[in-house]
Amino acid sequence: MSVKDEIRSGPDAPAAEQRQADAPGFVGRRHEIAQVRRILAQTRLLTLTGVGGVGKTRLARRVSELLPRKYREGVRLVELATIDEEDLVAPAVAAALGIHDRTPDLVAQLIEHLADKQLLLVLDNCEHLLGACARLVQQLLHGTSRLQILATSRQSLGVYGERVLPVPSLPTPQPGDGTRDIVRRDAVRLFTERAATIRPGFHVDTANARAVARLARRLDGIPLAIELAAVRLRTTSVEDLVNELDERLETALPAGEAGPGTLARHQTLRATMEWSFGLCSPGERRLWERLSMFAGGVDVETAEAVCPGQGLACEDVLDLMTGLVDKSILGGAEPHGLGGRHRMLETIRAYGREQLPPADAEALRERFIDHYRRLVERVRVDRLEPDQIDRLRMLKPDLPNVRVALDLCLGRPGDAPAGLEIASELWSTWLVTGALSEGRYWLKRGLALVPGPSVARAMGLWADGLLAHYQGDAAAAGARECLALARQLRDEKALAFAAQLSGVAALCEGDVEGGLTFLEEARTRHWARGDVGAVAVTLYLAALFAAMMRPDRAAGYGEELVTLCERRNATLFRAYALYAVGMARWEQGDWRQTEARMREVAAFWRGTEDRWGLTQCLEALAWTAGVRGRYERAARLLGAAHLLWEAVASSPTRLRYQARSHQECAERARRELGAQAFTAAFRDGTRLGLARAIAYALEDP
After folding, report:
1. Over the Cα atoms of the chain, what is R_g?
2. How far apart are CA 673 and CA 406, in angstroms?
3. 376-379, long-range: CB within 8 Å, 24+ apart, which pairs?
4. Which stretch of DSSP H or E encloses residue 127?
5. Helix or strand holding residue 496 (H, E)
6. Helix axes 30-40, 56-66, angle to 10 degrees
7. What is the pLDDT of residues 52-66, one digit of tens each?
């Protein structure tokens, strides 16, 4: 199978499997790895610095693979290259830690979660977010006792106590080295390994050793430059490659202009990038420029939808992508759905963005925004459809590109309404993935730019108000403005959602009848508009928030929602409906129904990795164990839930519908078991971990 076939079909194809099997490994860096390990034994913050392409990220990732056993809670990698907004640094860290940000103060939530954990946090590519990274790192280190941070950046963070390790280029052969010594140098080893993937059987011998040594020195041992140069062996010899490179670098770097150290390496990489750009065909150069827009990578179908125009035909995109993969400008296909996803290294992507002509950039901008606006609308998770989970999985890899589209929209006042609409339509994605702070960040940016009366503003207020409630913020003020604006506009969609938000706000303030009246109005309006997904959300909110105060009505709402979901085979919504029914049955005193519902939902949420839902299920199953007199089991489940509550930086005592039952369960189990036995069982539960805790909860009681 050709590379083009691989690009079209993705990495499930046999050729792709061979390509992955032959993928080169990590080369050299033994000294640097030893330095990192030694410094991390002495400090809590180490920053790897160096020019782009020198291998900071690869070194950090290699260290991450070697060190997990030293850290009780392991190593977590946070990739920041795809994030351009300072306010999204903390949400990115939370996502890497598996934390659902449920409070407005996400930094405080992170500190609480990491307070006494022995964990290595790797922050990769900090240079474009230097201020935000420095502030967050300082806060995390100050608020925790055992956390260590390994950062990569083109410059230091400037935080007190930081140790900086400049990452050098790979060692290159010295003048006068013999073939044996040349072969051992890491820069030559890397070139040889990459060259062998281009020209099978390639090796360094007495015939080509001098040329390879000269090439490695000419490229200053910069890994990315070496890899780009190795690609040329497909069409030229090593000797011709060196001569070609000499000519290019002498033209790009006149004598005396390439300073020592970092500047020289930066100019060498720049010249190599320009050389590689020049070796591309006009079409490949044009596509390189346009693919640089995709922070999260791209599949062929998306590239064909967004990139054509201004001299680039749709039917040529596949062949041009093949050429860019051949030249190592574009990465090989990574698993994604039925096809493959291709990424650019950040240094290569940044160069491509620089080359994009303003006229092409403007047209590309419009196509890019339009594509992701339609994608977000098409894969909305809150629709009552059988493929809800597939929609979520489909959207997740594209979230970095959606962020680019949002930033493009909110960067111009004229496009701000479109950006606000995209952020509002993503409300359920922000909620299910636990990215509430990020969702509210985009919504607040949009609301600030769309101050006048419009449906876009009304829906933005609704989405922000709903997420605010889940974070513990008062939703009343936003609900009042949303309702007033909807009435002013006399728009049926805005009126329906405003009534829904008003119902949630009223219930949270203790106004049961007023809140349920609003929610009934919302349900009626949504049905009249044919928006079944919005009806389902309204029923869920009514069932959950009315459970303590009107359990009979809450159970009715929940059962109605279960039936609706089953008719439409909406498995994701059905799980939430069953959870709401279980809570209502608990308040009615029917612990058997509660236990049955929670076990069913926990089994489902285990497959979707919904930590927030699993936490609440474990909590409720502890209550039912206590009611049955299984006090040791109840204590152990409370302990397992406690660990998860910490992970989401919350607790059952903060949730009105959890607090009373949690306290009663814990007090009764402690009284029946005795303090010592209760504590022992509770601690056993905290040691189970998520997978074992869920397995234990699902065992036959």
Report:
1. 28
2. 55
3. 376/402, 376/422, 376/425, 376/426, 377/425
4. none
5. helix 492-508
6. 60
7. 888 999 999 999 888
In the numeric block, the tokens 């995390």 are attached to 140
H helices present in 174-329, as ranges: 179-184, 186-198, 209-218, 223-230, 238-252, 261-279, 282-291, 300-306, 317-326
User: What was the pLDDT predicted at 336?
Assistant: 53
Cα distances (angstroms) measured from residue 638 to each of 614, 619, 623, 634, 651 = 12, 6, 9, 6, 11
Q: Are β-strands 334-336 and 339-341 bridged in parallel, bridged antiparallel, or unpaired?
A: antiparallel
Give yes or no for a contact between 575 and 663, defined as CB atoms under 8 angstroms apart.
no
H or E segment to which residue 222 belongs:
none
Mean pLDDT of all residues in 33-54: 92
How buried is residue 589: exposed, middle or buried, by Cβ count under 10 Å (0-12/13-18/19+)?
A: exposed
φ/ψ of residue 592, rounded to 5: -65, -45
**Kind plus residue range of the DSSP H or E element containing 76:** strand 75-79
Tokens 């900090």 -> residue: 126
pLDDT digits (tens, 9 = 90+) for 208-257: 899 999 999 988 899 999 988 888 888 888 888 888 887 777 665 554 44
What does each C-alpha distance from 224 to 149, 257, 270, 454, 695 come to in angstroms?
Answer: 25, 22, 11, 50, 46
Among 165, 177, 272, which Cα is nearest to 221's? 272
- Tokens standing for residue 431: 């909620």
- Of residues 275 and 442, the one with the higher pLDDT is 442
Nearest 5°: the CA angle 544, 96, 686 is: 65
Burial degree of 78 (CB within 10 A; 0-12, 13-18, 19+): buried
Q: Tokens 């150069």 identify what position?
A: 285
Of 318, 341, 445, the residue nearest 400 (C-alpha): 341
Per-residue tokens: 7: 């690009």
CA atoms within 13 A on the CB side of 499: 22
Coil, strand or helix at 178: coil
> If residue 543 lies in a helix (H) or strand (E), which one and from where to where?
helix 532-545
Burial letters for 508-546: b for 16+ Cβ neighbours within 10 Å, e otherwise? beeebeebbebbebbbebbeeeebbbbbbbbbbbbbbbb
DSSP calls for 14-28:
HHHHHHHHT------
SS3 11: coil
Residue 437, helix vs strand vs coil? helix
pLDDT for 475: 62
Confidence band for 4, pLDDT divided at 50, 70 and 90: low
418 Cβ contact list (under 8 Å, min separation 6): 369, 373, 409
Closest CA to 269 of 55, 53, 56, 125: 53
Collapsing DSSP states into helix, strand and coil, what is residue 295?
coil
Q: Apex CA 55: angle with CA 50 and CA 61, to 5°?
A: 115
Tokens matching residue 432: 């299910």
Quickly state the pLDDT bin for 591 (edges 50, 70, 90). very high
Task: DSSP letter for 253, please.
Answer: S
Q: How confident is the model at residue 283 (pLDDT cuts 50, 70, 90)?
A: very high
DSSP secondary-structure letter at 299?
Answer: -
SS3 90: helix
Sign of CA dihedral 191, 194, 198, 200: positive
User: Which residues fall within 8 angstroms of residue 659, CB to CB, at 6 or more apart?
Assistant: 652, 653
Q: Which of 247, 195, 186, 194 is nearest to 217 (CA)?
A: 186
